[in-house]
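Quick start: load a record and inspect it. Here is SDR family oxidoreductase:
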Amino acid sequence: MAGKLEGKIALITGAAQGIGLAVATRYAAEGATVVLSDIDGDAVQAAAEGIGGSASAMTADVTSEEQVAALVGEVVAQHGGLDIAVANAGIATVQPAVGMSLADWRKVTSVNLDGVFLTLTHAAGAMAASGGGALVTIASVTAQAGSPLISSYAAAKAGAVNLTRTIAIEMRDHGVRANAICPGFIDTELVKPHKKTFADALGLEAMGIPDFDAFIAMKQGRYGTEEEVAALATFLASDRAGFCTAGEYNLDGGLRASLL
Ligand SMILES: NC(=O)c1ccc[n+]([C@@H]2O[C@H](COP(=O)([O-])OP(=O)(O)OC[C@H]3O[C@@H](n4cnc5c(N)ncnc54)[C@H](O)[C@@H]3O)[C@@H](O)[C@H]2O)c1
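Running the structure step on this input writes:
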């Protein structure tokens, strides 16, 4: 049976590990030719080799316009076009907004917002030149609510969602669709180092909640998986999602919907 992305050329940023790697793996399994990109050249090379087949790796820092332009140009030159781009690269730091330096603020917003801007706009330009395509932004539920200790992350994600929506409208007549996925907590390397800080800041021990994992189990049932994000990213990139554009899709076990 033909895969859902048969014959498509897909570029995924931040694909050396975590959600990006899961998306690339699923896209390849669905018949796409995947280009994995990451700031970590060795890791992304190993990730592409792990997928095998026609998967390949390119090193690029999404905060550099020069590097993103070269990345998109290289994908088009090597594969004859670009059908799908996933703006997935992201980082997180944990500290209160008040007292944060502008440099610390920009460390996160440069990757999570500027990086999305560069990825989406350069990819959309290439797609429009060859009849259209699909953009998928990996945002976050933190885009939708105040998010203590991760202000720069949440503000950048909110900006990324709105930017995705805007590009979707601007590019509709060029055949380019753009959608954002807003995952709740997925147990990746982005989250793992910060669990204790969150647990302490939330005062979980005093509430009789043993740790951050138990808190997540209360709030969203369990951690989501990278593969679950990849499944939604596959649908949104596929031709079956032809009428889906400018959307914001929560994938959070109900986290955002609950007040208590
Ligand atoms: N894990 C979660 O709970 C969660 C929830 C919602 C959204 N997200 C988002 O999903 C995306 C992937 O996160 P993850 O959990 O897989 O994290 P991760 O840390 O496992 O992977 C992030 C990848 O991005 C790469 N990267 C970082 N800076 C980069 C740059 N400047 N240029 C290119 N690549 C860069 C890293 O090298 C890494 O391979 C991020 O945008 C993150 O904000 C994650």
